[in-house]
Amino acid sequence: MVILGEVLVVGVSALVVCSAIFWAWSAIKQRLLRGPDEALGQPPEVP
Fold it and tell me: Membrane-spanning residues where (predicted)?
């Protein structure tokens, strides 16, 4: 039972880390794509 608990904790923590990396990458990608438009003075495109 202890091994099962450790596996569960590792799996949940890995899932949290992956989701955090995915969220950060999405935010960075949006900022990079939106950067040149703001630099040119154009309003950012709304999806």
Answer: 6-25
